[in-house]
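Our preliminary data section would be incomplete without showing what the modeling component actually yields. Below, a chain of 121 amino acids is followed by its predicted structure, encoded as C-alpha cells that our downstream tools consume directly.
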Amino acid sequence: MRQILIIDDNPTQLQARAMVLRSAGFAVSTASTGEAALELLAKAQDDQQFGLVVTDHVMPGGSGAEFVRALRRNDPNLPVIVISGLAQAEDEYSGMEVTFLQKPCPPPVLVDQVRQRLQRV
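Predicted structure:
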C-alpha cells in the first residue's frame, strides 16, 4: 500500500491530519521537518512507497516551498498538497505542480483532495 507522508512542525496539526487520513483508510507516516521527510522518502523501500505528500508551508529550518523544490529534484512526479494559512504563499509554488489548500482545511476537504490526487497517479 502506498503511504501518505504528512509534514508539519506543529505536533497537534500533524497528529490531527494523520488521524483524519487514517480514519479515511489511508496508511500514513509523519515527519516534523522537511529534512526528516526527505530522509524518509530516500529510505522508502518498494513495499513502502509514498504516493502523496501533505505539507505545511511555514516550518522552522525551511519553508514548504523549499522542501518541495528539494523533493522535485529527486521526484518530479510525486503528488504534493500544501496547506497554509497564508493565501499569498501560493505564489511560491508556481510551476511546482502542487495542490494548495488554505487553512482552516476541514477534514472532508483534505480527504477529498487526497483521494483526487491519488487517483491521478
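The mean pLDDT is 91. Residues 107-120 form the longest helix (14 residues). Preliminary results of this kind motivate Aim 1 of the renewal.
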